[in-house]
Amino acid sequence: MDILRFIEDIKAHLKLTFDNVDGWFQKDKKTLNHQPSNGGWTIQQILEHIYLTNFYLLILIEKGSKKAMKNSLDLDLESEIKNYSFNKENFDKVGEHGAFEWIRPEHMEPKGELSLDEIRSLINQQYLQCVHYLEVMKNGEGLLYKTTMTVNDLGKINVYEYIYFLSLHARRHITQMQQNESEMIKN
């Protein structure tokens, strides 16, 4: 496994995804507040949900990165890198809206308590946090700690995979926002 390439690929995915999410904050109020006919969330609610989900995932990512760095003092990083293979297919479904049933916890549901500017600022900070963790674990250390991810039965995933998951989750909702906008334009 070329771990440096893997980390760079995650950084590129994050940048592309977060740039795309940021573009949604530029939409007009009508687009942002369009209630889809299926009763789903508005784009503004989806943006808040992305922030909330990132918030909770980043708690786990922060803990994981600290434990991974601590583990790098005692574990054989070279062996871990050599034996690691990334199962991209398992993760790709996470980024597809509607690919599987996803029951989110109530604390990740939008409450409308934050302004659009606050959400945008917080999401931008979250992007920088992700990049920071990738910089801290720049030599492959993120492989040295795993946490269970129940979504789509991913099982135990390492810190890099958690960051990739966070990016895929946002990508999933970009599709949802595109669907909302398309429906609004048609009506």
UniProtKB/TrEMBL annotation:
Pfam families: DinB_2. Residues 29-177 form the DinB-like domain. Signal peptide: none annotated. This is DinB family protein.
